[in-house]
Design goal:
It holds the Pfam family Mpo1-like. InterPro entries: Mpo1-like. By secondary structure, this protein is an all-alpha fold. The protein has one domain. Helix content is 69%, strand content 0%. It has 5 helices and no strands. It is globular and about 45 Å long. The N and C termini lie far apart (40 Å).
Length: 120
């Protein structure tokens, strides 16, 4: 089956062809894909909550100088996001294949939620 007919078969079945996150050459190319991987509202809300708690943990780190807050920040950020992906979005986080772009996407989406560009 050719790529065109394979894509047509996917479109007809309602499935989308798998995209390898490593194929993107820039964050600008990656971010639209990132947003499609966060189409579930609960997943986005969990990302938002995790990112907000991460900022609280980092602020607490600065105030207390207790390095355990770094661990708490990582647990909040990744824990909430992974629950969103595995429990609600039903996909694997892009952070497994594109960790830097995925982290950048988390904060870009967080900014875009605050700006009203991405619906919470």
């Amino acid at each position: 089956m050719t790529t065109a007919s394979s894509d047509a078969a996917h479109a007809a079945s309602g499935a989308t062809p798998a995209v390898d996150p490593r194929s993107f050459r820039s964050f600008a190319e990656f971010y639209p894909f990132y947003l499609t991987e966060h189409s579930n509202r609960t997943c986005r809300r969990l990302h938002f909550a995790g990112a907000s708690l991460t900022l609280v943990c980092l602020a607490t780190l600065v105030l207390t100088r207790n390095p355990l807050w770094v661990l708490a920040a990582l647990l909040c950020g990744y824990g909430f996001a992974w629950v969103g992906h595995f429990g609600f979005e039903k996909n694997r986080p892009a952070s497994f294949k594109r960790p830097l772009y995925s982290l950048m996407g988390d904060w870009a989406m967080y900014r875009d939620i605050w700006a009203g560009k991405v619906k919470l």
